[in-house]
TrEMBL record:
Pfam families: AP_endonuc_2. One of its GO terms (molecular function) is metal ion binding. It comes from the Bacteria. SUPFAM superfamilies: Xylose isomerase-like. Keywords: Isomerase, Manganese, Metal-binding. It comes from Algoriphagus halophilus. Signal peptide: none annotated. InterPro entries: L-rhamnose_isomerase, Xyl_isomerase-like_sf, Xyl_isomerase-like_TIM-brl. This is L-rhamnose isomerase / sugar isomerase. Residues 108-288 form the Xylose isomerase-like TIM barrel domain.
Length: 426
Protein backbone atom coordinates (compact mmCIF):
# COMPACT_ATOMS: atom_id res chain seq x y z
CA UNK A 1 0.00 0.00 0.00
CA UNK A 2 1.02 3.60 -0.53
CA UNK A 3 0.37 6.51 1.80
CA UNK A 4 -1.59 9.42 0.44
CA UNK A 5 0.52 12.56 0.47
CA UNK A 6 -2.55 14.75 0.99
CA UNK A 7 -3.46 12.89 4.16
CA UNK A 8 0.12 13.15 5.37
CA UNK A 9 0.19 16.88 4.82
CA UNK A 10 -3.20 17.32 6.43
CA UNK A 11 -2.02 15.45 9.52
CA UNK A 12 1.22 17.44 9.62
CA UNK A 13 -0.78 20.65 9.37
CA UNK A 14 -2.70 19.77 12.53
CA UNK A 15 0.58 19.43 14.45
CA UNK A 16 2.35 22.31 12.82
CA UNK A 17 1.74 25.18 15.20
CA UNK A 18 2.92 23.29 18.29
CA UNK A 19 5.96 22.06 16.35
CA UNK A 20 6.83 25.56 15.23
CA UNK A 21 6.66 26.79 18.78
CA UNK A 22 8.90 24.00 20.09
CA UNK A 23 11.36 24.19 17.22
CA UNK A 24 11.52 27.99 17.41
CA UNK A 25 12.35 27.84 21.11
CA UNK A 26 15.10 25.23 20.67
CA UNK A 27 16.53 26.88 17.53
CA UNK A 28 16.74 30.18 19.36
CA UNK A 29 18.54 28.61 22.34
CA UNK A 30 20.97 26.72 20.11
CA UNK A 31 21.75 29.78 17.99
CA UNK A 32 22.48 31.82 21.10
CA UNK A 33 24.99 29.16 22.09
CA UNK A 34 26.70 29.59 18.76
CA UNK A 35 25.27 26.59 16.89
CA UNK A 36 24.45 26.68 13.20
CA UNK A 37 20.87 25.39 13.37
CA UNK A 38 20.37 25.05 9.61
CA UNK A 39 23.64 23.14 9.40
CA UNK A 40 22.43 20.77 12.12
CA UNK A 41 19.12 20.18 10.33
CA UNK A 42 20.98 19.45 7.09
CA UNK A 43 23.20 16.89 8.84
CA UNK A 44 20.17 15.16 10.33
CA UNK A 45 18.49 15.10 6.92
CA UNK A 46 21.53 13.53 5.29
CA UNK A 47 21.87 10.73 7.83
CA UNK A 48 20.09 7.66 6.39
CA UNK A 49 19.96 4.16 7.82
CA UNK A 50 19.40 0.91 5.94
CA UNK A 51 16.60 -1.43 6.99
CA UNK A 52 17.14 -5.18 6.80
CA UNK A 53 14.66 -7.24 4.85
CA UNK A 54 14.24 -9.63 7.81
CA UNK A 55 13.00 -6.95 10.20
CA UNK A 56 9.70 -6.46 8.37
CA UNK A 57 7.95 -9.60 9.57
CA UNK A 58 7.42 -10.82 13.10
CA UNK A 59 10.67 -12.10 14.50
CA UNK A 60 10.70 -14.76 17.11
CA UNK A 61 12.72 -16.64 19.61
CA UNK A 62 13.61 -20.29 19.71
CA UNK A 63 10.48 -20.75 21.83
CA UNK A 64 8.00 -19.43 19.37
CA UNK A 65 6.88 -16.91 16.88
CA UNK A 66 3.69 -14.89 16.92
CA UNK A 67 2.51 -13.59 13.58
CA UNK A 68 1.27 -10.02 13.36
CA UNK A 69 -0.68 -10.30 10.13
CA UNK A 70 -0.13 -8.37 6.92
CA UNK A 71 3.50 -9.40 6.78
CA UNK A 72 5.22 -8.92 3.41
CA UNK A 73 4.91 -12.14 1.41
CA UNK A 74 7.73 -11.52 -1.01
CA UNK A 75 10.62 -9.19 -1.77
CA UNK A 76 8.41 -6.73 -3.60
CA UNK A 77 6.16 -6.34 -0.58
CA UNK A 78 9.20 -5.96 1.66
CA UNK A 79 10.31 -3.06 -0.53
CA UNK A 80 6.80 -1.59 -0.25
CA UNK A 81 7.06 -1.69 3.54
CA UNK A 82 10.40 0.10 3.43
CA UNK A 83 8.77 2.61 1.06
CA UNK A 84 6.18 3.23 3.79
CA UNK A 85 8.91 3.71 6.38
CA UNK A 86 10.71 6.09 4.07
CA UNK A 87 7.58 8.13 3.39
CA UNK A 88 6.84 8.47 7.10
CA UNK A 89 10.32 8.89 8.58
CA UNK A 90 12.54 10.08 5.72
CA UNK A 91 15.26 8.24 7.61
CA UNK A 92 15.85 5.21 5.43
CA UNK A 93 16.56 4.94 1.74
CA UNK A 94 18.04 1.47 1.39
CA UNK A 95 17.43 -2.18 2.14
CA UNK A 96 19.88 -4.84 3.22
CA UNK A 97 18.96 -8.16 1.66
CA UNK A 98 19.47 -11.59 3.06
CA UNK A 99 20.29 -14.51 0.79
CA UNK A 100 18.73 -17.08 0.34
CA UNK A 101 15.63 -15.50 1.91
CA UNK A 102 15.40 -12.68 -0.63
CA UNK A 103 16.65 -13.99 -3.98
CA UNK A 104 14.85 -11.88 -6.61
CA UNK A 105 12.81 -13.93 -9.06
CA UNK A 106 12.76 -11.05 -11.54
CA UNK A 107 15.64 -8.59 -11.23
CA UNK A 108 14.22 -5.98 -13.60
CA UNK A 109 10.92 -5.75 -11.77
CA UNK A 110 12.61 -5.63 -8.34
CA UNK A 111 14.93 -2.90 -9.53
CA UNK A 112 12.16 -0.82 -11.00
CA UNK A 113 10.08 -1.27 -7.85
CA UNK A 114 13.02 -0.14 -5.69
CA UNK A 115 13.69 2.79 -7.99
CA UNK A 116 10.07 3.93 -7.92
CA UNK A 117 10.22 3.96 -4.11
CA UNK A 118 13.62 5.67 -3.99
CA UNK A 119 15.24 2.67 -2.32
CA UNK A 120 18.73 1.38 -3.08
CA UNK A 121 20.42 -1.87 -2.09
CA UNK A 122 22.75 -1.72 0.88
CA UNK A 123 25.20 -4.47 1.88
CA UNK A 124 24.14 -8.05 1.07
CA UNK A 125 24.02 -10.69 3.79
CA UNK A 126 25.02 -14.28 3.25
CA UNK A 127 23.67 -17.13 5.34
CA UNK A 128 25.73 -20.15 6.27
CA UNK A 129 24.15 -20.54 9.69
CA UNK A 130 21.20 -22.61 8.47
CA UNK A 131 20.73 -25.57 6.17
CA UNK A 132 18.44 -24.86 3.25
CA UNK A 133 18.76 -27.91 1.06
CA UNK A 134 22.42 -27.51 0.08
CA UNK A 135 24.49 -30.73 -0.32
CA UNK A 136 26.66 -30.39 2.84
CA UNK A 137 25.33 -29.44 6.26
CA UNK A 138 26.51 -26.38 8.19
CA UNK A 139 25.80 -28.12 11.47
CA UNK A 140 29.48 -28.05 12.44
CA UNK A 141 30.37 -24.77 10.79
CA UNK A 142 30.79 -23.24 7.36
CA UNK A 143 33.78 -21.07 6.43
CA UNK A 144 35.76 -22.61 9.28
CA UNK A 145 34.48 -26.19 8.98
CA UNK A 146 37.08 -28.95 9.26
CA UNK A 147 35.90 -30.41 5.94
CA UNK A 148 37.14 -28.64 2.84
CA UNK A 149 34.02 -29.62 0.88
CA UNK A 150 31.84 -27.70 3.36
CA UNK A 151 34.15 -24.69 3.31
CA UNK A 152 34.12 -24.66 -0.50
CA UNK A 153 30.35 -24.78 -0.53
CA UNK A 154 30.14 -21.90 1.97
CA UNK A 155 32.60 -19.83 -0.08
CA UNK A 156 30.58 -20.56 -3.23
CA UNK A 157 27.41 -19.38 -1.48
CA UNK A 158 29.08 -16.08 -0.56
CA UNK A 159 30.29 -15.67 -4.14
CA UNK A 160 26.72 -16.25 -5.34
CA UNK A 161 25.51 -13.56 -2.92
CA UNK A 162 28.09 -11.17 -4.41
CA UNK A 163 26.79 -11.97 -7.90
CA UNK A 164 23.21 -11.26 -6.84
CA UNK A 165 24.29 -8.02 -5.17
CA UNK A 166 26.17 -6.91 -8.29
CA UNK A 167 22.98 -7.15 -10.32
CA UNK A 168 21.16 -4.95 -7.80
CA UNK A 169 23.85 -2.30 -7.37
CA UNK A 170 24.91 -3.28 -3.86
CA UNK A 171 28.45 -2.40 -2.81
CA UNK A 172 29.11 -4.68 0.11
CA UNK A 173 28.91 -8.13 1.63
CA UNK A 174 28.26 -8.68 5.32
CA UNK A 175 29.46 -11.95 6.76
CA UNK A 176 28.22 -13.14 10.10
CA UNK A 177 29.46 -16.57 11.06
CA UNK A 178 27.75 -18.85 13.52
CA UNK A 179 30.86 -21.04 13.36
CA UNK A 180 32.37 -22.31 16.58
CA UNK A 181 31.98 -25.25 18.91
CA UNK A 182 29.87 -26.27 21.86
CA UNK A 183 32.36 -28.41 23.75
CA UNK A 184 36.07 -28.27 24.49
CA UNK A 185 37.94 -30.51 22.11
CA UNK A 186 35.21 -30.46 19.49
CA UNK A 187 37.13 -28.15 17.19
CA UNK A 188 40.73 -27.13 16.74
CA UNK A 189 40.73 -23.48 17.85
CA UNK A 190 43.76 -22.58 15.74
CA UNK A 191 42.89 -24.55 12.63
CA UNK A 192 39.30 -23.32 12.53
CA UNK A 193 40.60 -19.74 12.64
CA UNK A 194 43.06 -20.52 9.85
CA UNK A 195 40.37 -22.09 7.65
CA UNK A 196 38.11 -19.11 8.24
CA UNK A 197 40.90 -16.79 7.17
CA UNK A 198 41.44 -18.81 3.96
CA UNK A 199 37.73 -18.84 3.17
CA UNK A 200 37.32 -15.10 3.79
CA UNK A 201 40.30 -14.45 1.58
CA UNK A 202 38.68 -16.38 -1.28
CA UNK A 203 35.45 -14.44 -0.82
CA UNK A 204 37.37 -11.17 -0.76
CA UNK A 205 39.04 -12.05 -4.06
CA UNK A 206 35.61 -12.56 -5.63
CA UNK A 207 34.39 -9.08 -4.68
CA UNK A 208 34.40 -6.24 -7.22
CA UNK A 209 36.97 -3.53 -6.48
CA UNK A 210 34.42 -1.01 -5.28
CA UNK A 211 32.90 -3.40 -2.73
CA UNK A 212 33.71 -3.78 0.92
CA UNK A 213 33.59 -6.84 3.13
CA UNK A 214 31.92 -6.26 6.50
CA UNK A 215 32.92 -8.88 9.06
CA UNK A 216 30.81 -9.30 12.19
CA UNK A 217 31.89 -10.78 15.48
CA UNK A 218 29.93 -12.31 18.32
CA UNK A 219 31.16 -13.84 21.58
CA UNK A 220 28.67 -16.69 21.86
CA UNK A 221 25.48 -18.12 20.39
CA UNK A 222 24.52 -20.33 18.66
CA UNK A 223 27.77 -21.94 19.77
CA UNK A 224 28.43 -21.77 23.49
CA UNK A 225 31.99 -22.90 24.03
CA UNK A 226 33.85 -21.04 21.33
CA UNK A 227 33.00 -18.75 18.45
CA UNK A 228 35.59 -18.47 15.69
CA UNK A 229 35.21 -14.67 15.47
CA UNK A 230 34.29 -13.77 19.06
CA UNK A 231 35.43 -10.16 19.23
CA UNK A 232 36.47 -7.05 17.32
CA UNK A 233 40.15 -7.94 17.66
CA UNK A 234 39.78 -11.28 15.91
CA UNK A 235 37.58 -9.72 13.25
CA UNK A 236 40.13 -6.97 12.73
CA UNK A 237 42.98 -9.47 12.53
CA UNK A 238 41.14 -11.46 9.85
CA UNK A 239 40.19 -8.32 7.92
CA UNK A 240 43.78 -7.07 7.88
CA UNK A 241 44.96 -10.41 6.56
CA UNK A 242 42.51 -10.46 3.63
CA UNK A 243 42.70 -6.89 2.31
CA UNK A 244 42.09 -3.15 2.67
CA UNK A 245 38.40 -3.28 1.89
CA UNK A 246 37.63 -5.76 4.65
CA UNK A 247 36.53 -4.02 7.84
CA UNK A 248 34.90 -4.76 11.16
CA UNK A 249 31.15 -4.54 11.59
CA UNK A 250 29.91 -3.68 15.08
CA UNK A 251 26.57 -5.23 15.96
CA UNK A 252 25.52 -3.65 19.26
CA UNK A 253 23.98 -6.90 20.51
CA UNK A 254 27.13 -8.93 19.92
CA UNK A 255 28.94 -8.10 23.15
CA UNK A 256 29.10 -9.49 26.62
CA UNK A 257 27.22 -7.41 29.22
CA UNK A 258 28.94 -4.16 30.25
CA UNK A 259 31.39 -4.16 27.36
CA UNK A 260 32.57 -0.64 26.59
CA UNK A 261 31.33 -0.53 23.00
CA UNK A 262 32.18 3.14 22.50
CA UNK A 263 35.79 2.27 23.25
CA UNK A 264 35.73 -0.50 20.66
CA UNK A 265 34.32 2.02 18.17
CA UNK A 266 37.03 4.54 19.05
CA UNK A 267 39.74 1.91 18.61
CA UNK A 268 38.39 0.80 15.23
CA UNK A 269 37.97 4.38 14.01
CA UNK A 270 41.54 5.11 15.14
CA UNK A 271 42.68 2.39 12.75
CA UNK A 272 40.17 3.26 9.99
CA UNK A 273 38.85 -0.26 10.48
CA UNK A 274 35.16 0.33 11.15
CA UNK A 275 32.93 -1.04 8.40
CA UNK A 276 29.63 -0.08 9.92
CA UNK A 277 26.92 -0.76 12.44
CA UNK A 278 24.11 -3.08 13.14
CA UNK A 279 21.85 -1.10 15.47
CA UNK A 280 19.78 -2.80 18.15
CA UNK A 281 19.84 -2.87 21.92
CA UNK A 282 20.36 -5.51 24.56
CA UNK A 283 20.07 -6.15 28.25
CA UNK A 284 21.66 -9.58 28.44
CA UNK A 285 22.94 -10.71 25.06
CA UNK A 286 21.86 -10.66 21.44
CA UNK A 287 18.35 -9.63 22.49
CA UNK A 288 17.44 -7.72 19.32
CA UNK A 289 15.60 -5.09 21.32
CA UNK A 290 14.72 -1.73 19.80
CA UNK A 291 17.74 0.54 19.41
CA UNK A 292 18.04 2.94 22.32
CA UNK A 293 15.34 1.24 24.39
CA UNK A 294 17.76 -0.03 27.05
CA UNK A 295 20.99 1.97 26.85
CA UNK A 296 20.38 5.35 25.21
CA UNK A 297 23.46 6.89 26.89
CA UNK A 298 25.68 4.22 25.35
CA UNK A 299 24.24 4.97 21.93
CA UNK A 300 24.95 8.67 22.43
CA UNK A 301 28.54 7.95 23.52
CA UNK A 302 29.06 5.78 20.44
CA UNK A 303 27.95 8.65 18.22
CA UNK A 304 30.27 10.99 20.12
CA UNK A 305 33.20 8.74 19.14
CA UNK A 306 32.02 8.48 15.53
CA UNK A 307 31.58 12.22 15.12
CA UNK A 308 34.86 13.16 16.79
CA UNK A 309 36.64 10.45 14.77
CA UNK A 310 35.30 11.84 11.55
CA UNK A 311 35.91 15.51 12.50
CA UNK A 312 39.49 14.71 13.48
CA UNK A 313 40.03 12.89 10.17
CA UNK A 314 40.60 9.44 11.70
CA UNK A 315 37.90 7.77 9.61
CA UNK A 316 35.58 9.39 7.08
CA UNK A 317 31.90 9.48 8.04
CA UNK A 318 30.94 8.41 4.51
CA UNK A 319 33.00 5.23 4.79
CA UNK A 320 30.73 3.86 7.52
CA UNK A 321 27.58 1.81 6.79
CA UNK A 322 24.49 2.18 8.98
CA UNK A 323 21.93 -0.52 9.39
CA UNK A 324 19.34 -1.72 11.84
CA UNK A 325 19.56 -5.40 12.78
CA UNK A 326 16.61 -6.38 14.91
CA UNK A 327 13.48 -8.43 14.63
CA UNK A 328 11.65 -8.97 17.85
CA UNK A 329 8.61 -10.88 18.81
CA UNK A 330 6.04 -8.63 20.39
CA UNK A 331 5.73 -5.41 18.38
CA UNK A 332 4.43 -4.38 15.00
CA UNK A 333 7.80 -4.43 13.19
CA UNK A 334 7.10 -1.24 11.26
CA UNK A 335 6.38 0.65 14.48
CA UNK A 336 9.47 -0.92 16.03
CA UNK A 337 11.60 0.29 13.11
CA UNK A 338 10.15 3.79 13.39
CA UNK A 339 11.09 3.86 17.07
CA UNK A 340 14.60 2.66 16.24
CA UNK A 341 15.10 5.21 13.46
CA UNK A 342 13.94 7.96 15.81
CA UNK A 343 16.27 6.91 18.63
CA UNK A 344 19.23 6.69 16.28
CA UNK A 345 18.47 10.18 14.95
CA UNK A 346 18.07 11.61 18.45
CA UNK A 347 21.36 10.10 19.68
CA UNK A 348 23.18 11.31 16.57
CA UNK A 349 21.77 14.82 17.00
CA UNK A 350 22.69 15.01 20.68
CA UNK A 351 26.23 13.92 19.84
CA UNK A 352 26.42 16.71 17.25
CA UNK A 353 25.69 19.20 20.04
CA UNK A 354 28.67 18.26 22.21
CA UNK A 355 30.99 21.22 22.58
CA UNK A 356 34.13 19.43 21.46
CA UNK A 357 36.48 22.32 21.95
CA UNK A 358 35.40 22.66 25.56
CA UNK A 359 35.53 18.89 26.07
CA UNK A 360 39.08 18.69 24.74
CA UNK A 361 40.12 21.58 26.97
CA UNK A 362 38.64 19.81 30.00
CA UNK A 363 40.46 16.61 29.05
CA UNK A 364 43.75 18.44 28.64
CA UNK A 365 43.36 20.27 31.95
CA UNK A 366 42.28 17.17 33.82
CA UNK A 367 38.88 18.72 34.60
CA UNK A 368 36.92 15.51 35.15
CA UNK A 369 33.72 17.20 36.27
CA UNK A 370 33.83 19.71 33.42
CA UNK A 371 34.28 16.94 30.85
CA UNK A 372 31.33 15.02 32.18
CA UNK A 373 29.22 18.19 32.20
CA UNK A 374 30.04 18.75 28.53
CA UNK A 375 28.58 15.37 27.65
CA UNK A 376 25.58 15.66 29.95
CA UNK A 377 24.67 19.08 28.63
CA UNK A 378 24.24 17.60 25.17
CA UNK A 379 22.74 14.29 26.29
CA UNK A 380 20.06 15.78 28.52
CA UNK A 381 18.78 18.15 25.88
CA UNK A 382 15.47 17.40 24.20
CA UNK A 383 16.43 17.51 20.52
CA UNK A 384 13.22 16.00 19.19
CA UNK A 385 12.05 19.27 17.59
CA UNK A 386 15.28 19.34 15.51
CA UNK A 387 14.78 15.76 14.36
CA UNK A 388 11.14 16.50 13.57
CA UNK A 389 12.03 19.64 11.63
CA UNK A 390 14.49 17.68 9.47
CA UNK A 391 11.81 15.07 8.78
CA UNK A 392 9.14 17.64 7.90
CA UNK A 393 11.53 19.47 5.58
CA UNK A 394 12.06 16.22 3.68
CA UNK A 395 8.31 15.63 3.38
CA UNK A 396 7.95 13.04 6.14
CA UNK A 397 5.40 12.82 8.91
CA UNK A 398 5.62 15.15 11.90
CA UNK A 399 4.67 12.15 14.03
CA UNK A 400 5.36 8.92 12.09
CA UNK A 401 3.86 6.42 14.54
CA UNK A 402 0.87 8.67 15.18
CA UNK A 403 0.19 8.94 11.47
CA UNK A 404 0.73 5.21 10.92
CA UNK A 405 -1.86 4.45 13.61
CA UNK A 406 -4.29 7.10 12.47
CA UNK A 407 -4.16 5.67 8.95
CA UNK A 408 -4.72 2.12 10.27
CA UNK A 409 -1.81 0.95 8.13
CA UNK A 410 -1.46 -2.49 9.75
CA UNK A 411 -5.19 -3.14 9.37
CA UNK A 412 -4.95 -2.25 5.69
CA UNK A 413 -1.91 -4.48 5.23
CA UNK A 414 -3.82 -7.37 6.82
CA UNK A 415 -6.73 -6.76 4.44
CA UNK A 416 -4.32 -6.71 1.51
CA UNK A 417 -2.04 -9.61 2.45
CA UNK A 418 -4.04 -11.66 4.93
CA UNK A 419 -3.84 -12.32 8.65
CA UNK A 420 -1.66 -15.39 8.16
CA UNK A 421 0.86 -13.97 5.70
CA UNK A 422 4.38 -14.81 6.73
CA UNK A 423 7.56 -13.08 5.87
CA UNK A 424 10.60 -15.12 4.83
CA UNK A 425 13.42 -15.18 7.33
CA UNK A 426 13.81 -16.18 10.92
MN1 LIG B 1 24.05 -8.32 12.92
Amino acid sequence: MKLSLEQLQEYNQSLFSSHQEEFGFLANQLSKEGNDVNGLVEKIKAFQIAVPSWALGAGGTRFGRFGIGGEPRDLEEKLEDIGLLKALTQKTDSVSLHIPWDIPSDYASIQSKAESLGISFDAMNSNTFQDYGQPHSYKLGSLGNAKKSVRDQAVAHNVEVIEIGKKLGSKGLTVWLADGSNFPGQASLRNSLHWTQESLSEIYQAMPEDWKLLVEYKPYEPNFYHTIIPDWGTSSLLCKSVGDRAKVLVDLGHHLPNTNIEQIVATLVYQDMLAGFHFNDSKYGDDDLTTGSIKPYQLFLIFCELISGSEDGAQAWESISWMIDASHNTKDPLEDLMQALEMISISFTKALLVNREKLTACQMEGDVVGAQECLQEAFQRDVRPLVKEARIQLGGAADPIGHYRKMDVRKKLIQERGAESRSTGL
